[in-house]
Sequence to fold (183 residues):
Amino acid sequence: MKFGYRRWAGYPSAGPATCPPDWAEKTSTDLARRFDLIRIEDLKIGNMVRSARGTIAAPGVNVRAKAGLNRSIHAAGWGHLARRLEHKAAGRVEKINPAYTSQICHVCGHCAADNRESQAVFRCRACGHVDHADVNAAKNIAAGHAVTCLSRPTSPDRPPVRGALQPLGGAMNREPQPVPSSR
Fold:
């Protein structure tokens, strides 16, 4: 059977890889019913789980660790949840480019690699805002920011360029527009 239902039914203490994908169905249904717009990271999962074994001339390093990471990514079902959301909330799912979302400050928009002190801590060097790094990135994604960032000066006499927070497709005029009448 697909997804290991038979193994799961016999072993209630089985790990996530052997559990049925019911969580993705329930979660995607709940999100589709509760929200008009759903934003998710546009992760390239195929690239993330690519093998690290290398070639004969240049063998890979930490191949076993990478294989374990690949298994956990597949077991978590990131792609399955995204696909189910796109089916159940057709036209209401926006995929946001994840580039720099963990390095840009949600409060002031400052973007620098130094903002990320560690895996868990985000501290903005410009305004001093402190947050959990994943929470800060999630706020950027939820706001729909397509982030552009250069953390290095473009020339020695110019300061670093700050990140620009703009909606997908650029800035938009959100003022009410008159509707042309058909009379």
